[in-house]
Amino acid sequence: MVEAKWKQSKYSPSLEEYMSNAKISISLELAIQSTLFFLDEPISDGQIMHVDYLRIMDIVNAIGRLNNDIQSYKVIYVSSIFDIVYWY
Hints:
Number of strands: 0
Number of domains: 1
Distance between the termini: 20 Å
Shape: elongated
Structural class: mainly alpha
Radius of gyration: 16 Å
């Protein structure tokens, strides 16, 4: 939604703005968390809210989004959907 507004207004976000939104929109954390609950080991709320876990998820989301942007660059460029590769 945020990226659509940027595109519509022809706004070029800073790298920090883009990545802040990108890490949320990739939704890898949701996929990873739902997988964790099917493991044999019980996972507590404290483990999921631990600062180390949160930092790892932040990094996973950033890497996932950057990888997605790089892999889809040609398709996105043709369709005029903005991503980090387009802007930078």
